[in-house]
Design a protein that fits this description.
This protein is mainly α. It has 23 helices and two strands. The protein has a domain of about 60 residues. A hairpin with a 2-residue loop joins strand 1 and strand 2. The two termini are about 40 Å apart.
């Protein structure tokens, strides 16, 4: 699965090397495990005075010579794993240069202010004074030289403003999305936490439709923000997302997948069904896309279940057939098991975002007239207490359970 996400030119085969640069836990976990030996080496050589995040390593030493010896040792270890240090990105800094490079005072301020905010934010108390101080500090920060870890500090300001729900960083977003790829994930989280408004929508749509949004990671991340937003039901807004999905689906396989999930949330069953029909040549020969199509079956089950099973059978998409079989099994389990109820209730804590995948399973079960109506009503009552998305609630409450 991971190998399928690794970028390569269309005319070259997969070489079995590298991890995809996508926001999934699996590649991060593999990268960390692969470099555990590096951690042991650095811990011994620096007396624990090092930090590593994925393949980004910082460590402190007393002399330049000591730093060079450790770098040689690192390179030798990496060679045994088929890797090399990127010497073009490797720097040895004096303590004075390191202060400019790592911006410790700025990081210290953000650490302190974030800890100070935890309690009032949790208790929903006013933090207007803190917001003003953060804005003032940020404006001074922007005047600093764009050197070293400047973008990482910028990213922390987005994280802080997500916590304070302060929208003042919005005006910087369009240029940053286009020109600062390292800040994009922080921007996505910031806009996801702030929620929908027309300005944020326009910023993300303009980026999504531009040539700047060409990597799979950005395409999936923007689509996730769109799907996670809790937007009140309205024909115009829903049509905007539907049109965006139709207009961008042909740009790449990642765009097709993103369009599929946008339509699974915002379109009608008929619109989604037509989309599947019109793009059959795109998804039927792709293992990944076929699985994505199978996963949205609950939205179009009445009109497409037999058709999809036939296409998957004819094209040998066993994985996609397994997904449909699993959905059938969950849909037809009677009585509805405690495990399924627990899964669809999405835990016991506060629900920040109710997943689209679980919503689709909920409507699949609620639409199954072969199940006892009282069991379906009980499930509906359980999950609607946990769901906080207006569109999901509208669709669930519109179902007639007899």
């Amino acid at each position: 699965m991971l190998e399928a996400f690794v970028w390569r030119p269309d005319y070259l085969p997969l070489n079995g090397f590298g991890l995809p640069q996508v926001d999934f836990d699996a590649p991060r976990l593999l990268a960390f495990a692969f470099l555990f030996e590096i951690d042991e080496f650095l811990d011994k050589k620096t007396a624990g005075n090092f930090v590593r995040w994925m393949d980004d390593i910082d460590f402190g030493v007393n002399t330049i010579e000591e730093g060079k010896r450790i770098l040689r040792g690192l390179d030798e270890i990496l060679l045994t794993r088929g890797l090399r240090l990127n010497m073009g990105k490797t720097k040895i800094l004096s303590s004075e240069d390191a202060r400019k490079y790592f911006l410790p005072d700025e990081n210290r301020y953000l650490t302190i202010i974030n800890k100070r905010l935890d309690k009032p934010v949790k208790l929903n108390k006013s933090i207007e004074d803190e917001k003003k101080k953060i804005r003032s500090r940020f404006k001074k920060f922007l005047k600093k030289d764009k050197f070293g870890r400047w973008e990482k500090v910028y990213a922390r300001y987005f994280t802080t403003c997500s916590k304070t729900q302060d929208r003042f960083l919005e005006k910087y977003v369009p240029l940053l999305l286009n020109n600062s790829p390292d800040l994009r994930n922080n921007i996505y989280r910031y806009y996801s936490n702030l929620g929908f408004n027309q300005t944020r929508y326009n910023h993300l749509v303009n980026f999504f439709e531009s040539d700047h949004c060409s990597d799979d990671s950005s395409i999936f991340a923007v689509a996730k923000v769109f799907v996670d937003w809790k937007i009140k039901a309205g024909k115009i807004r829903r049509n905007n997302f539907v049109n965006l999905a139709f207009n961008t689906a042909n740009r790449s396989l990642a765009n097709f997948s993103a369009s599929l999930w946008l339509l699974a949330k915002y379109s009608s069953s008929e619109e989604l069904s037509n989309f599947i029909d019109n793009h059959v040549s795109t998804w039927q020969h792709s293992r990944f896309l076929s699985r994505q199509v199978a996963a949205i079956l609950p939205k179009i089950r009445d009109s497409k279940v037999d058709y999809l099973k036939k296409v998957f059978t004819d094209s040998g998409r066993i994985d996609s057939l397994r997904i449909i079989n699993n959905l059938d099994l969950i849909r037809n389990t009677s009585p509805i098991s405690s495990n399924i109820n627990c899964y669809l209730e999405h835990g016991t804590g506060t629900v920040k975002v109710y997943p689209l995948t679980k919503f689709l399973i909920v409507i699949d079960i609620l639409n199954n007239t072969n199940l006892n109506s009282s069991a379906r009503i009980e499930l509906r009552d359980r999950v609607t207490k946990r769901i906080n998305d207006p569109l999901y609630l509208q669709e669930i409450n519109s179902l007639k359970i007899l």
